[in-house]
Amino acid sequence: MTGQIEIITGPMFAGKTEELIRRLTRVQYAGQRAIVFKPEIDNRYEQNKVCSHSGKQIDCIVTNTLNDIWEQGQNYDVIAIDEIQFLPTRDEILINQQHVEIRIDDLLNKLADMGKRIIVTGLDLDFRGKPFVNTMYIMAIAEKVDKLTAICMQCGNLATRSQRLIEGKPAHYLDPIIVVGAEETYEARCRKCHAVVED
Question: What pTM value is reported for the model?
Fold first, then answer.
Protein backbone atom coordinates (compact mmCIF):
# COMPACT_ATOMS: atom_id res chain seq x y z
CA MET A 1 0.00 0.00 0.00
CA THR A 2 1.02 3.58 -0.63
CA GLY A 3 0.79 5.55 2.57
CA GLN A 4 -1.25 8.71 2.76
CA ILE A 5 -2.87 11.07 5.24
CA GLU A 6 -6.49 12.19 4.92
CA ILE A 7 -8.22 14.71 7.16
CA ILE A 8 -11.94 15.41 7.40
CA THR A 9 -12.45 18.77 9.07
CA GLY A 10 -14.97 21.53 9.63
CA PRO A 11 -17.33 22.68 12.40
CA MET A 12 -19.50 20.61 14.67
CA PHE A 13 -22.56 18.97 13.06
CA ALA A 14 -20.92 18.90 9.60
CA GLY A 15 -20.87 15.08 9.39
CA LYS A 16 -17.13 14.51 9.94
CA THR A 17 -17.49 11.34 12.01
CA GLU A 18 -20.20 10.02 9.71
CA GLU A 19 -17.81 10.42 6.76
CA LEU A 20 -15.06 8.66 8.73
CA ILE A 21 -17.37 5.71 9.42
CA ARG A 22 -18.36 5.61 5.72
CA ARG A 23 -14.71 5.38 4.67
CA LEU A 24 -13.98 2.71 7.27
CA THR A 25 -16.94 0.64 6.06
CA ARG A 26 -15.44 0.66 2.54
CA VAL A 27 -12.06 -0.34 4.01
CA GLN A 28 -13.72 -3.35 5.67
CA TYR A 29 -15.38 -4.35 2.39
CA ALA A 30 -11.93 -4.28 0.77
CA GLY A 31 -10.59 -6.69 3.40
CA GLN A 32 -8.06 -4.23 4.81
CA ARG A 33 -7.23 -4.23 8.49
CA ALA A 34 -8.23 -1.03 10.25
CA ILE A 35 -7.81 0.28 13.78
CA VAL A 36 -9.77 3.23 15.14
CA PHE A 37 -8.81 5.56 18.00
CA LYS A 38 -10.60 8.31 19.85
CA PRO A 39 -9.40 10.60 22.67
CA GLU A 40 -10.29 9.65 26.22
CA ILE A 41 -11.83 13.09 26.83
CA ASP A 42 -14.56 12.44 24.24
CA ASN A 43 -17.15 10.83 26.50
CA ARG A 44 -20.31 12.16 24.83
CA TYR A 45 -21.68 8.82 23.69
CA GLU A 46 -20.50 5.22 24.18
CA GLN A 47 -17.04 4.80 25.68
CA ASN A 48 -15.51 2.26 23.27
CA LYS A 49 -17.21 3.44 20.09
CA VAL A 50 -16.81 6.35 17.72
CA CYS A 51 -20.35 7.71 17.31
CA SER A 52 -21.77 10.25 14.90
CA HIS A 53 -24.50 12.68 15.97
CA SER A 54 -26.87 10.75 13.68
CA GLY A 55 -26.28 7.52 15.62
CA LYS A 56 -23.83 5.64 13.38
CA GLN A 57 -21.00 4.00 15.29
CA ILE A 58 -17.90 1.86 15.03
CA ASP A 59 -15.71 0.15 17.64
CA CYS A 60 -12.59 2.00 18.74
CA ILE A 61 -9.71 2.14 21.18
CA VAL A 62 -9.79 4.99 23.69
CA THR A 63 -6.45 6.71 24.30
CA ASN A 64 -4.80 9.90 25.49
CA THR A 65 -1.28 9.13 24.22
CA LEU A 66 0.39 9.20 20.84
CA ASN A 67 2.39 6.13 21.85
CA ASP A 68 -0.75 3.94 21.72
CA ILE A 69 -1.32 5.02 18.13
CA TRP A 70 2.33 4.40 17.25
CA GLU A 71 2.60 0.96 18.84
CA GLN A 72 -0.77 -0.45 17.80
CA GLY A 73 -1.13 1.29 14.46
CA GLN A 74 1.92 -0.41 12.94
CA ASN A 75 0.00 -3.71 12.82
CA TYR A 76 -2.81 -2.35 10.60
CA ASP A 77 -3.29 -1.15 7.03
CA VAL A 78 -5.54 1.76 7.98
CA ILE A 79 -5.33 3.96 11.10
CA ALA A 80 -8.32 6.17 11.88
CA ILE A 81 -8.44 8.82 14.60
CA ASP A 82 -11.59 10.74 15.53
CA GLU A 83 -11.46 14.20 17.17
CA ILE A 84 -7.73 14.68 16.59
CA GLN A 85 -7.85 18.15 18.20
CA PHE A 86 -8.23 16.53 21.64
CA LEU A 87 -4.98 14.53 21.49
CA PRO A 88 -1.61 15.87 22.70
CA THR A 89 0.25 17.98 20.14
CA ARG A 90 3.56 16.58 21.49
CA ASP A 91 4.11 13.29 23.28
CA GLU A 92 6.72 10.61 23.86
CA ILE A 93 6.73 7.41 21.83
CA LEU A 94 8.96 4.39 22.24
CA ILE A 95 11.23 3.69 19.26
CA ASN A 96 13.90 0.98 19.56
CA GLN A 97 13.62 1.02 23.37
CA GLN A 98 14.21 4.78 23.42
CA HIS A 99 11.66 7.41 24.45
CA VAL A 100 11.47 10.03 21.72
CA GLU A 101 9.41 13.22 21.89
CA ILE A 102 7.42 13.70 18.71
CA ARG A 103 4.82 16.09 17.36
CA ILE A 104 1.52 14.65 16.16
CA ASP A 105 2.06 15.53 12.49
CA ASP A 106 5.51 13.91 12.54
CA LEU A 107 3.99 10.77 14.05
CA LEU A 108 1.40 10.52 11.30
CA ASN A 109 4.07 11.15 8.66
CA LYS A 110 6.13 8.26 10.08
CA LEU A 111 3.15 5.92 9.89
CA ALA A 112 2.24 7.06 6.36
CA ASP A 113 5.87 6.54 5.29
CA MET A 114 5.45 2.92 6.43
CA GLY A 115 2.62 2.55 3.90
CA LYS A 116 -0.29 3.18 6.27
CA ARG A 117 -3.44 4.99 5.23
CA ILE A 118 -4.24 7.53 7.95
CA ILE A 119 -7.77 8.98 8.19
CA VAL A 120 -8.46 11.59 10.87
CA THR A 121 -11.29 13.91 11.79
CA GLY A 122 -10.97 17.13 13.72
CA LEU A 123 -12.49 20.52 14.30
CA ASP A 124 -10.57 23.13 12.35
CA LEU A 125 -11.59 26.03 14.63
CA ASP A 126 -12.26 26.33 18.35
CA PHE A 127 -15.36 28.11 19.72
CA ARG A 128 -13.58 31.48 19.34
CA GLY A 129 -12.94 30.89 15.64
CA LYS A 130 -9.20 30.26 16.16
CA PRO A 131 -7.39 27.27 14.56
CA PHE A 132 -6.84 24.08 16.54
CA VAL A 133 -3.09 23.41 16.36
CA ASN A 134 -3.29 19.65 15.69
CA THR A 135 -5.77 20.08 12.85
CA MET A 136 -3.75 22.93 11.36
CA TYR A 137 -0.54 20.87 11.29
CA ILE A 138 -2.25 17.83 9.78
CA MET A 139 -4.08 19.83 7.11
CA ALA A 140 -0.68 21.09 5.94
CA ILE A 141 0.82 17.61 5.45
CA ALA A 142 -2.25 15.66 4.29
CA GLU A 143 -2.60 14.35 0.76
CA LYS A 144 -6.37 14.75 1.01
CA VAL A 145 -8.22 17.50 2.90
CA ASP A 146 -12.02 17.52 3.03
CA LYS A 147 -13.41 20.63 4.72
CA LEU A 148 -17.09 20.08 5.40
CA THR A 149 -19.73 22.64 6.31
CA ALA A 150 -22.88 22.41 8.40
CA ILE A 151 -26.09 24.45 8.30
CA CYS A 152 -26.25 27.58 10.45
CA MET A 153 -28.78 26.97 13.20
CA GLN A 154 -29.64 30.70 13.21
CA CYS A 155 -30.10 31.69 9.56
CA GLY A 156 -29.82 28.51 7.47
CA ASN A 157 -26.70 29.53 5.52
CA LEU A 158 -23.58 27.36 5.33
CA ALA A 159 -21.96 27.09 8.76
CA THR A 160 -18.19 27.04 9.26
CA ARG A 161 -18.04 27.81 13.01
CA SER A 162 -18.90 26.00 16.24
CA GLN A 163 -20.85 28.30 18.54
CA ARG A 164 -20.44 27.53 22.25
CA LEU A 165 -23.41 28.48 24.39
CA ILE A 166 -23.60 28.89 28.16
CA GLU A 167 -27.20 29.02 29.39
CA GLY A 168 -28.22 29.94 25.84
CA LYS A 169 -25.73 32.82 25.48
CA PRO A 170 -22.37 33.00 23.63
CA ALA A 171 -19.33 31.92 25.64
CA HIS A 172 -16.66 34.40 26.72
CA TYR A 173 -13.38 34.56 24.78
CA LEU A 174 -11.39 33.67 27.93
CA ASP A 175 -13.43 30.54 28.72
CA PRO A 176 -11.58 27.18 28.50
CA ILE A 177 -10.82 26.09 24.93
CA ILE A 178 -11.84 22.46 25.50
CA VAL A 179 -15.37 21.78 26.70
CA VAL A 180 -16.79 18.52 25.38
CA GLY A 181 -20.46 18.69 24.47
CA ALA A 182 -23.07 18.31 21.75
CA GLU A 183 -26.41 19.99 21.02
CA GLU A 184 -26.83 21.20 24.61
CA THR A 185 -23.58 23.20 24.46
CA TYR A 186 -22.88 23.96 20.79
CA GLU A 187 -24.55 25.11 17.59
CA ALA A 188 -23.28 25.28 14.03
CA ARG A 189 -23.12 28.91 12.90
CA CYS A 190 -22.08 30.89 9.84
CA ARG A 191 -19.47 33.65 10.06
CA LYS A 192 -22.15 36.34 10.45
CA CYS A 193 -24.12 34.59 13.22
CA HIS A 194 -21.10 33.33 15.18
CA ALA A 195 -20.53 35.34 18.37
CA VAL A 196 -17.95 35.44 21.18
CA VAL A 197 -18.13 37.76 24.18
CA GLU A 198 -14.84 39.65 24.44
CA ASP A 199 -15.35 42.37 27.06
Answer: 0.92
